[in-house]
């Protein structure tokens, strides 16, 4: 298979994975929550003014979410068709930037949905601000959230990646700025991951009604995703610099697209697979209820 055919196949997969498959999963998940746990039976899940507008707000959000993702998929198909008509072939002249831009366009609906979720949780916390609070004990050690081999792998891969930049850019090619930029990217990215890991371990409770067991499972899943992302980022940066070193930069658009897809599969995909709706205790959102025995 030629690199050109490989690129078209990989980019088509990116369109499907990020603008069709996972948006459909999220759409179905939200629809199920609105249908099975309405404001009439689970009022704590719908703070004012969502309590009276839950049906309308939910339907409107889902409509725009599906519309934007559909438009994004259409844009991606148009890009592919134009590239085919123009006889485009990957050449390593910065096409990976276009793949990156399109990835962020695809990620925009999910990011907007996440911001909406944070606002929803803030309303829930405000609604409970005058209620009696109860303290809960949650694990505080990092090894409670992520297995030690995963932690060590993330650290080792980060050190290997930094060592590679020092050797190739600084020692071999005498490009101190390139080495500094690459190392800064690794340190900055992992610094963000460390901040988020600490937030999920010791940060405030986003959902004020969430049971301790559900919160721990959510935090554990998120923290493991960040460790996998750290390992993936190190491998990605290593490969990206390696193809430049070997003068095969025409592979960069393919590598970028595959990396973005794996990021979504092991990130968002893991969340959807691990945090099944049937395993979440929605009884905590019932009027006057603090939850069932399944989530202690």
Quick summary of this structure?
Helix content is 72%, strand content 0%.
Describe this structure in words.
The protein is mainly α and about 300 residues long. The protein has one domain. Helices cover about 70% and strands about 0% of the residues. The protein contains eight helices and no strands. It has helices spanning about 5-35, 50-85, 95-125, 150-170, 175-200, 210-245, 250-265, 270-275. Helix 1 packs antiparallel against helix 2 (about 50-85) and helix 4 runs parallel beside helix 6. It starts with a helix and ends in a 22-residue tail after the last helix.
Key features?
single chain; 296 residues; mainly alpha; 0% strand; flat; disordered C terminus
Shape: flat
- What is the number of beta strands? 0
Largest sheet: none
Q: Strand content of the residues, in percent? A: under 5%
Task: List unreliable stretches of 5+ residues.
Answer: 291-296
Q: What secondary-structure arrangement, pairings included, does this model have?
A:
Layout: H1 3-36, H2 50-86, H3 95-127, H4 148-172, H5 176-202, H6 212-245, H7 252-266, H8 268-274
Helix pairs in contact: 1-2, 1-3, 1-7, 2-3, 3-7, 4-5, 4-6, 5-6, 6-7, 7-8
């Amino acid at each position: 298979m030629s690199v050109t055919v490989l690129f078209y196949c990989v980019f088509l997969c990116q369109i499907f994975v990020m603008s069709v498959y996972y948006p459909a999963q999220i759409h179905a998940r939200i629809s199920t929550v609105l249908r099975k746990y309405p404001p009439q039976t689970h009022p704590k899940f719908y703070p004012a003014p969502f309590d009276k507008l839950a049906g309308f707000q939910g339907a409107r959000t889902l409509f725009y979410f599906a519309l934007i993702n559909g438009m994004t998929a259409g844009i991606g198909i148009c890009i592919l068709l134009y590239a085919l008509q123009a006889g485009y072939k990957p050449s390593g002249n910065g096409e990976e930037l276009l793949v990156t831009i399109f990835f962020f366009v695809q990620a925009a609906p999910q990011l907007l949905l996440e911001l909406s979720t944070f606002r929803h949780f803030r309303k829930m916390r405000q609604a409970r601000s005058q209620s009696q609070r109860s303290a809960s004990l949650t694990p505080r050690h990092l090894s409670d959230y992520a297995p030690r081999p995963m932690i060590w792998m993330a650290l080792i891969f980060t050190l290997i990646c930094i060592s590679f930049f020092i050797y190739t850019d600084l020692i071999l090619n005498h490009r101190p700025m390139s080495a500094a930029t690459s190392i800064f990217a690794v340190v900055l990215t992992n610094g963000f991951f460390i901040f988020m890991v600490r937030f999920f371990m010791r940060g405030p409770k986003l959902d004020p009604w969430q049971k301790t067991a559900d919160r721990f499972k959510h935090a554990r899943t998120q923290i493991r995703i960040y460790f996998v992302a750290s390992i993936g980022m190190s491998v990605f940066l290593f490969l990206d610099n390696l193809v430049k070193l070997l003068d095969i930069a025409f592979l960069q658009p393919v590598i970028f697209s595959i990396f973005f897809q794996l990021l979504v599969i092991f990130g968002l995909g893991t969340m959807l697979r691990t945090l099944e709706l049937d395993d979440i205790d929605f009884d905590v959102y019932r009027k006057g209820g603090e939850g069932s025995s399944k989530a202690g």
